[in-house]
Amino acid sequence: MLNLKKENSLFASGYALVAGVDEAGRGPLAGPVVAAVAVLDAAAAEKIAGIKEFKKLKDSKLVPEKKREEFFELIMNNFTEVGVGICDHETIDRLNIYQATFLCMKKALGALKKKPDYIMLDGRAPIPNFSLKQENIVDGDNLVFSIAAASIIAKVTHDRLIAELAEKYPQYGFANHKGYGTKEHLDALIKYGPTPFHRKTFGPVKNLLKKTP
Known about the structure:
By secondary structure, the protein is of the alpha/beta class. The protein contains ten helices and five strands. The protein has a single domain, classed as Nucleotidyltransferase, domain 5 (2-Layer Sandwich), CATH 3.30.420.10. It has a five-stranded mixed sheet.
């Protein structure tokens, strides 16, 4: 069960605003990548510690879709602040997925009214050319409460955007695979060709475009 041990340790060290950062949608063949930042101060952390529903918070990949939606509302209503950054498929193709993800994180942090004093990121790669104090935590979305919260916000936001694609292009099965390269998705790509929202630099799409006269 996740707790606020890491955040409380940072508050005790003198940091007033701490935040978790995570992304969703790096792997899909279509649609945007989304980053989110979930910010806490000591008062919000104390309040959250007393909300029993938060005791089941964990990495978004381990939470059923309906429960993610419930957590989304809880986080939005109880965290000090939440920021979201989105980069579309064209930006991903132009920059590459890694740089687009960092840009999303900067956008999410830029959307905040007040900058956090300390940010924690899931994974090994720090945000380049960025002045805020940051710490990388491998498997952070399973270990740090605010990173898990950011993962929920990013995942729900991403999947809502993919749901719009599912409505527009029902034949691709986006509602089932969320843009990832499943057999259903790859079969649809071969049958119908890429949509305007597919990432042209991603292998299966790139290879298909090469074969198209």
